[in-house]
Amino acid sequence: MTRGLVAVLLAAIGAGSTSNLITGDGGRAEQAPDLSKLNFVRVIYDSEGGMGEAYYIYDGRLWARWETDFPEGDDNFAKRLAQLTRIQVSRRAFSRMLTASDLGDFPMLYMSDVGYMVLSRQERSALRRYLLNGGFLWVDDFWGDAEWQQFANVMRDVLPERQWQVLPASNPVFKSVFEFDELPQIPALPFASPFGSTAEPPGAHKLPTGSMEEAQMRAWLDDEGRIMVLATHNTDVGDGWEREAYGEWYFETFSTKAYMVGTNVVVYAMLH
Length: 272
Prior knowledge:
Blueprint (H helix, E strand, L loop, with lengths): L2 H11 L27 E4 L1 E2 L7 E4 L2 E4 L7 H13 L9 E4 L10 E5 L4 E2 L2 H12 L3 E7 L1 H15 L6 E2 L49 E6 L5 E7 L3 H6 L5 H24 L1
């Protein structure tokens, strides 16, 4: 990714326009999605454990793992995606359980912070059905070996006939709009620093973490090589969306990259 692309993105979305984005508690009335537009849909799931595992307190709010960065990050991304592409996008994100009767109305789903995730048998069957019918799942913001294994174990039941693989930079998802030589590593705002590593600290994640220095795109592919499930591992793209209004340095250093990655993923999903 070149410095010139960052400049283009800054000009397109306006670095000074972040003050009108959502930074509050995100409360909203339930509304029906407009199916004539792309709806960015967050998956609701259960997690194992107690405080610090299935849920946590941060920034004056109790968060379940599934709603990390929700709805602010998802809403901000929907706004920016509409500015950066010609895709007709609903400006407010939605959430659904995997067993929702209308899940098939949505061409792509997004999950975050899945390091403690558990799915019921019904949810695993519903996800398998969704994926085999052409759906696309993007999973983000989980770090280290233990959190990866938690998700990989679930996927072993969902797609037992398929194995995940690391995507090379030659894969079209790296080049669908913006060009990347590697997946950017985006730390959550509390861990971002202009000095040293961009990896989050091991103590913030499930143990054992192993190395968290390298961000990777990992994926499960269908028989034609289409990505069915995309995982952005050892990076937190969603926090780049959510926290763009929390300082010019974080916005220019990480949020711009987060929007580029998100745009590439969505455009790839829509074209495949």
